[in-house]
From TrEMBL, chain A:
InterPro entries: MetI-like (IPR000515), MetI-like_sf (IPR035906). Its main location: membrane. It holds the Pfam family BPD_transp_1. This is ABC transporter permease. It is found in: Cell membrane. Residues 90-300 form the ABC transmembrane type-1 domain. It comes from Glutamicibacter ardleyensis.
From TrEMBL, chain B:
Signal peptide: none annotated. It is found in: Periplasm. This is ABC transporter substrate-binding protein. InterPro entries: SBP, Sperm_putr-bd, TAT_signal. PANTHER family: SPERMIDINE/PUTRESCINE-BINDING PERIPLASMIC PROTEIN, SPERMIDINE_PUTRESCINE-BINDING PERIPLASMIC PROTEIN. Gene3D superfamilies: Periplasmic binding protein-like II. Keywords: Periplasm, Signal, Transport.
Length: 310, 410
C-alpha cells in the first residue's frame, strides 16, 4: 500500500514493480483459496437447502396426482393457505418461546451469578456446579422430556401433592397442558441461557463492585448499575440461544402437550411433512418460521444489541 | 417414461440421479431455472418431488440379490409385535429361525405409525434406494399405497410354500390381488379399552368415552381409519360402503368437539400405551392385542371390547421394499412364520388375530387357555362386528388425511 499514491484526479497509481505486484496477487489469491472450503460448505449445507426449500414451497399438486407428487410451479398461494390455517400455532410458538426465555433468564441468571462470581474463590465447588449444569446434556433430550412426563403424570407425586394442597383442582392435570410445555421448554433450554451468562460474569472485575460500594451504592444498586449492564452481552446471547430453538421446538409440545391449545409450529411442519405428505405446505411454513425468527431477532438486536453483534 | 437409449448405471442412487436429471432437462423450460443445477435436480428427486414419471422409476430398479452370500435380513416392525423373552432379552422365534436357516435377523421396532413411516422412507423408495430394511410391516391401506406406487418387490411364491396356510379370506385382497407383493403378518381390531379399577362401570360404545368422569383421561389413535372408523360406526355409518364427505365430516366434528373441550387428552400412535401405564389415560380407542400384553405386564388392569356399534378390522402386511438386496432371505423368514407352530408361538405373545391355518391346533400345546380367545381365534360371529374401512383414492386420502390432521391439531 505504501507504494500507492493518489494522483490529482483521484486515481490510484501503483508504483510497485511487476514482481511485487505478482507476489501481492498471489498472497491475495491465497486468502481467496482459504475461504473457498468454508464458502463451499456454506453453499452446500446452507444456501442450497434454503434454495431447495424456497423452490419446494412454491410447488403445486397437479389434479389427481399420486400422494407425494408435486410439480415445479410458482404457487404463492401455498403461503396464504398455510399462514391462514396455522397462524395461531405460529403466534403460540413465539408466545411459548418468549415465556420460556424470560423464565430461563430469571432462573438462569442467579445460577450463573452464583457459580461465576460468588464461588470464584472456591474452585472445586465451582467446577462441580458447572459439571452439574452441563450434566443434563449427557443424556438424551427426548429421554429427559419423557422423564418429566412421568414425574408430572396424574398419578405422580407432584400432581397428587398439588391436588392435596388444593393448588390444582381435583380433576386438573399437569401434563397435556400449556404449563407443561412451557416448563419443558424452560428446563430443556436453561443451560443455553446459563452458560453464556456464566462465561460473561466469569470476566467480571469485582474491583468495580468494591468501587461502587466505596461510593455508597447498596449491593442492590451495585448489581443493577454495575453487574447487570456489564453482563448484558451474556444475557443477550443467552436469550437468543434460548428463544430461537424454543420457537421451532416440537418435542416438548409433542410429549408434554395436548392436541388443543399447545400445538407449536414445529409439530405442524412435522405433520405436514411426514403425515400429510404436503411438502410445499411444510416448506412454506418452514420458510415463514425462518423469516419471522429473522425479523424478530433483527428487531431485538437493533433495540438491545451490542456493537459486536451487528 | 421415454425409452432409454443408454444403459443406466447399476448403482440405484446414481441411476436415480441420472433419471432425475433427464427429467429435469425435459422440463427445463419450466419456471425453476435454478433447479437445473445438477445437484439440485438429484436433491429434489430424492425429496420425492420429481416429475410425473418419477413414480415408475422405482419399479424399474433391478437389484442383485446377495442373500446367498449375506445371511442376514433386516426387519422393521411395530412395538410389542413379536414374541419376546423378558429374561433373556431375546426373540425366541428369531433365534429358532437363525438355528434353522443360519440367517440372523436384525429386528427393529421402527414403525410408530403408517403415515410417519411412509413419510420417513418414501423419498428413498421413490428414488429406488435401499432403505436399509428388507422387510417392512404396514397396514392394508398403506401396503396398498406402496404396492400401487411400485415401492415393493414381487415375491417368489415358490420360496414361500407355507403361504398355503394363509387364512382363505386373506388370500386374495383388493390392494394386492393374488398376494403378489405382500403376506399378512397379523390381523386385529381397533376397539375401546378402559381401566377396570378406575372406571368400573366400563364402556359399551365409543360415545361412552365422552362420560364427564373421563374428562381429560381419554386417548384416541392417530391412525385415521381406526379412530374415524369407530366414530363413524358410532354414528351408524357403514364404513365399508360408499360413504362421503358429509358422514366423515359429522364424525370429525365429534372428534373436534371432544378434543376442544378437553375430554380427549391426547391423540397418539403406538405410544398411547405409556399413557395407559402411567395412569394419565383411563380409557380410549386402542388396538386389541396391545391391551392383552399390557395386562400381562401390569397385573390385569384393563379391559378391551369391540363397541356394540362395531369395531374396525385391519391387517398388517410384510413386504420387501424396492432395492432390498436380500429378498430371498426375507422370503425365507415369511415362510418360517407361516409354520403353524411358529405362528402359534407369536400369537400367544402378541394376542392379535393369527392369520395362519393350523395355528389353533398348535396353540393347544402351547397354551390351551388361548384357544378360545376371540381376540386370537375369532369366530364368524366375532368377525361380524368388525368392519374394514373402505379404500380411499389418492385424492380422498390427501383431503381427508389433511382434515383429520388439522382436527387433531397438527
Amino acid at each position: 500500500m505504501s507504494k500507492m499514491v493518489m494522483t490529482k484526479k483521484g486515481k490510484i497509481a501503483d508504483l510497485r514493480s511487476a514482481e511485487e505486484i505478482k507476489a501481492e496477487r498471489r498472497k491475495g489469491r491465497t486468502g481467496v483459496y482459504l475461504v473457498v472450503p468454508g464458502m463451499l460448505v456454506l453453499f452446500l449445507f446452507f444456501a442450497l437447502p434454503v434454495i431447495v426449500l424456497l423452490s419446494m414451497s412454491l410447488y403445486a399438486r397437479p389434479e389427481g396426482a399420486e400422494i407425494g407428487e408435486f410439480v415445479p410451479a410458482l404457487e404463492f398461494g401455498n403461503y396464504v393457505t398455510v399462514l391462514s390455517a396455522y397462524w395461531s400455532e405460529l403466534v403460540r410458538s413465539f408466545g411459548f418461546a418468549l415465556i420460556a426465555t424470560v423464565l430461563a433468564l430469571l432462573i438462569g441468571y442467579p445460577m450463573a451469578y452464583l457459580v461465576a462470581v460468588r464461588l470464584r474463590q472456591h474452585g472445586l465447588l465451582q467446577g462441580i456446579l458447572l459439571v452439574l449444569l452441563i450434566a443434563p446434556f449427557f443424556s438424551s433430550f427426548i429421554l429427559r422430556t419423557q422423564a418429566w412426563k412421568q414425574i408430572l403424570a396424574d398419578e405422580g407425586w407432584v400432581a397428587q401433592t398439588l391436588k392435596l394442597i388444593a393448588v390444582l383442582p381435583a380433576d386438573g392435570h399437569l401434563t397435556a397442558t400449556p404449563f407443561a410445555v412451557v416448563a419443558g421448554l424452560t428446563y430443556n433450554f436453561l443451560p443455553f441461557m446459563v452458560l453464556p451468562i456464566y462465561a460473561n460474569l466469569g470476566r467480571l472485575d469485582t474491583r468495580l463492585l468494591e468501587a461502587s460500594g466505596d461510593l455508597y451504592a447498596s449491593p442492590m444498586t451495585s448489581f443493577f448499575k454495575v453487574t447487570l449492564p456489564l453482563s448484558a452481552p451474556g444475557v443477550f446471547a443467552g436469550t437468543l440461544l434460548t428463544f430461537i430453538p424454543a420457537a421451532g421446538d416440537y418435542v416438548n409440545a409433542a410429549l408434554l402437550g395436548n392436541n388443543r391449545n399447545t400445538t407449536m409450529i414445529g409439530q405442524v411442519i412435522d405433520s405436514r411433512f411426514f403425515k400429510v405428505i404436503d411438502y410445499p405446505g411444510a416448506a412454506a411454513l418452514s420458510f415463514i418460521l425462518m423469516l419471522s425468527i429473522l425479523i424478530l431477532v433483527t428487531l431485538y438486536i437493533r433495540r438491545f444489541g451490542t456493537k459486536e453483534l451487528m | 417414461m421415454s425409452p432409454q437409449r443408454r444403459q443406466l448405471p447399476e448403482d440405484p442412487q446414481i441411476r436415480a440421479l441420472v433419471q432425475a436429471m433427464s427429467q429435469r432437462s425435459m422440463s427445463r423450460r419450466g419456471v425453476l431455472g435454478a433447479a437445473g443445477a445438477l445437484g439440485l435436480g438429484g436433491l429434489l428427486a430424492a425429496c420425492g418431488t420429481g416429475g410425473k414419471s418419477a413414480g415408475s422409476s422405482a419399479s424399474a430398479v433391478s437389484v442383485k440379490d446377495v442373500s446367498a452370500t449375506d445371511p442376514t435380513v433386516n426387519w422393521a416392525n411395530w412395538t410389542l409385535y413379536l414374541d419376546y423373552d423378558e429374561k433373556s432379552k431375546t426373540y425366541p422365534t428369531l433365534d429358532q429361525f437363525k438355528e434353522k436357516t443360519g440367517i440372523s435377523v436384525s429386528y427393529v421396532e421402527d414403525i410408530d405409525g403408517n403415515d410417519t413411516y411412509y413419510g420417513k422412507v418414501q423419498g428413498q423408495l421413490k428414488a429406488g434406494q435401499d432403505i436399509g430394511q428388507d422387510l417392512i410391516t404396514l397396514t392394508d391401506w398403506m401396503a396398498g399405497r406402496i404396492i400401487r406406487q411400485g415401492y415393493t418387490q414381487e415375491l417368489d411364491h415358490a420360496n414361500i410354500p407355507n403361504l398355503a396356510n394363509l387364512l382363505p379370506d386373506l388370500k386374495d385382497v383388493d390392494f394386492d390381488p393374488g398376494r403378489k407383493n405382500s403376506v399378512t403378518w397379523q390381523t386385529g381390531y381397533a376397539g375401546i379399552a378402559w381401566n377396570k379399577k378406575k372406571f368400573p362401570k366400563g364402556l359399551k360404545n365409543v360415545s361412552d368415552l365422552w362420560d364427564p368422569a373421563l374428562k381429560g383421561r381419554v386417548t384416541v389413535l392417530d391412525e385415521m381409519r381406526d379412530t374415524m372408523g369407530l366414530l363413524m360406526l358410532d354414528r351408524g355409518v357403514d364404513i365399508t360402503g360408499q360413504w362421503g364427505e358429509s358422514e366423515f365430516g359429522t364424525a370429525l366434528d365429534d372428534l373436534r368437539k371432544n378434543i376442544g373441550n378437553g375430554q380427549i387428552r391426547q391423540v397418539k400412535g403406538n405410544s398411547y400405551k405409556s399413557d395407559f401405564i402411567s395412569g394419565d389415560a383411563i380409557a380410549g380407542i386402542v388396538w386389541s392385542g396391545d391391551i392383552v400384553q399390557m395386562n400381562f405386564e401390569n397385573d390385569d388392569q384393563w379391559e378391551f371390547a369391540i363397541p356394540e356399534a362395531g369395531g374396525t378390522l385391519w391387517s398388517d402386511n410384510l413386504m420387501v421394499p424396492v432395492a432390498s438386496p436380500r429378498k430371498a432371505n426375507a422370503e425365507k423368514l415369511m415362510n418360517f412364520y407361516y409354520e403353524p407352530k411358529v405362528a402359534a408361538e407369536v400369537a400367544a405373545y402378541v394376542n392379535f388375530i393369527c392369520p395362519v391355518l393350523g395355528a389353533k391346533e398348535e396353540m393347544e400345546k402351547i397354551d390351551p387357555s388361548l384357544v378360545d380367545n376371540p381376540l386370537i381365534f375369532p369366530t364368524e360371529e366375532d368377525l361380524s362386528h368388525a368392519h374394514v374401512f373402505r379404500a380411499l383414492d389418492a385424492e380422498e386420502e390427501t383431503t381427508l388425511g389433511s382434515e383429520f390432521q388439522s382436527a387433531i391439531g397438527a
